[in-house]
Amino acid sequence: xxxxxxxxxxxxxxxxxxxxxxxxxxxxxxxxxxxxxxxxxxxxxxxxxxxxxxxxxxxxxxxxxxxxxxxxxxxxxxxxxxxxxxxxxxxxxxxxxxxxxxxxxxxxxxxxxxxxxxxxxxxxx
Length: 125
What we know:
With 125 residues, the protein is of the alpha+beta class. The chain has helices spanning 14-22, 26-32, 39-45, 116-123, and strands spanning 34-37, 49-51, 57-60, 69-76, 81-90, 96-101, 106-110.
């Protein structure tokens, strides 16, 4: 059985769709890690969502940390998760554990536009 093939994206079978997303190589996993833009950014750039990046300012839309406005500290493409600054779970012994959040539960409020290629990608279309 193949590990991954680009033809699975055409399938209607949910099992193959999950397999496509989980086993996707990193250059495709990056596109799967897109986060929706807020109304102002959506209107400004004419895009609904955009791949997330370290330094973006986001709002948590669901879960225990709903409503928090924070910056992204790390994006993990392998686990398809995002780590946020100042969002921790405190264990009984006092250790702070960073919380990983799925990108579908986030909204971009402010983009990190330090990269010229990222600016170009936004202005495309």
